[in-house]
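Appendix B. Raw example, untouched.
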Amino acid sequence: MTVFKFGRFILPAACALALAAAPAMAQSAGGATVAPAGVAAPTKAKPMKLPAADAFKTVALATAHCPGDTVVWSTLSKSKSYHTASSKYYGKTKHGAYVCEKDATAAGFHASKT
């Protein structure tokens, strides 16, 4: 068995090669991790926003935009939740709009718990 000495440690060849390759695997460039050539870099998923064209002030406008789909009240806040017509908050929150349920779920919104 081939062994290598790293500082005061003696390691088998397989471990020594892995340790030697580790700095090359993830190099830092200005705080961002850079992947070596041929390896896909990890990406952060951008939070999706609901397009302004899909948010309406009245139920009638939202219904005209999405016939056959349920119209919900979206809070348009960091909570990313929406309320159905049976909810006591439907159309009542300070920052919100009527949207199609499919558009809201596509933008990452979820049904409220109340």
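End of appendix B.
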